[in-house]
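Entry for the shared binder. Reason: the reviewer on the internal report wants the predicted structure included alongside the sequence.
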Amino acid sequence: MTICWILHQTDAEQGNGNLKPMLDDIKKTLWATADKLRANMDAAEYKHLVLGLIFLKYISDTFAARQTELKKRFADEADDYFLHECDNEMLAEELEDRDYYKEVNVFWVPESARWENLRAAAKQTDIGKRIDDALSGIEGENPKLKGILDKRYARAQLPDGKLGELVDMISTIGFGEEASQARDVLGQVYEYFLGQFASAEGKKGGQFYTPASIVKTLVAVLAPHHGKVYDPCCGSGGMFVQSEKFIESHGGKLGDVSIYGQESNPTTWRLAAMNLAIRGIDYNLGREPGDTFTRNQHPDLRADFVLANPPFNISDWWHGSLEGDPRWVYGTPPQGNANYAWLQHMLYHLRPNGRAGIVLANGSMSSSQNNEGTIRAAMVDADMVEVMIALPGQLFFNTQIPACLWFLAKQKTTRKGEVLFIDARKQGSMISRVQAELTDDTIERIAQTVAAWRGEPVAANQEEGSEGVSTYTDIPGFCRSVTLAEIAQHGHVLTPGRYVGAEEVEDDDEAFADKMQTLTEKLGEQMAKGAELDALIRQKLGGLGYEF
């Protein structure tokens, strides 16, 4: 049973419960093989080679699948596409008509760029140049991909033969003949590889990849069903992908939202565009990569939702042209830290009824240095802050910086003059020795708590899809709704642990005196046992000639 064969199975053939673990095993096998081929190449560089080839394999597979479908339809007398008196030459000519592919949003792939031709040449010394030429040909035929595909294979610093081996490895990924299935398989493989590369890159990997459970939490709380969604530091596009999943899981259509983003790193900008293109998501990432503060690609955008994980505490962001910028409504951010520049940039780009969810370092909740406390106080007093969530540690790849989630509302419709604080620091589940995540149950609990606090419907039964409005209640140690006046009394510090209090301890009705007696008796027993062991050790050592 080959990898390719397994990935071509449908849910009906494999069973819904068995397909996911099988696919998980395949992803791990693919990663292990790809990582082995990396040799001494830096993960940050290698990432683009692997993901670019996966992208190329996918669009070639979907093109081939469309060709197979067309052949069947051309021969079916009952089909609108039926070709009367069609010979082989006419069939070949018809199969090369680009309109058949564009009408179903399949990228046109020139013959020289089709995967079977690249695979046949995998052992040739010029395979790198062939891949670059294939990518150039695809860009030339598909204007939406112009300038997006990363053509770096001819100059890749891989040992001889390794690039060909990588082509052979990726050839084992079969995306199936159903478009929706192919996109889902690709999405899962792509997302898994992004996460693995982030882990391999260590701290630097966090600059382009936000762990899935954090993104899910942002999306679950914001619930971006419709309108314009914006990420001003979009990395590889994870916020948009998770928004797509949320919309589909709630019965919506992908066309219900418009995607806007910006990214300063050119290679990561291309990665985001590829990540969205393979999922059929329409997007606007600006004309080119650029710094969000000094080269704002969407100056007139007013979004319904902003989701972002900006780089924490960056100190080299300031430029003299930013003095007096209209985005600094609540005060000029300090030149040595961009946290409050990001917050104000996002508020500026919100529509009057828009909401934003932002990941920031914990220091942003309490810092009073260099005007940050003044800006935070102004934002709180203006009732811009809606929800604050403290996150568990170890959620990010190889970095221990504790983080939090800010949720901003340009114009609250409920709970005016209040902020909801949620302390989720103890809600993490370890998935490895060094990394934690928020489980789906925890994310749902947080989202339903926020929805109840806002007075919005929450799903009472996910399988049945029934909804109802729950009554919000403060839960000591987890959540509490706090007035702006009380926050002002605390110096406008927004750390949830300061407000939610301690978790209630269940009372087992055992009297304090009885508890003390039980504990004292247990301690006495343990001390007596300790004395016995001490005497035994002395006896044994005395037999060996040691004196005490």
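Summary line for the report: Residues 43-75 form the longest helix (33 residues).
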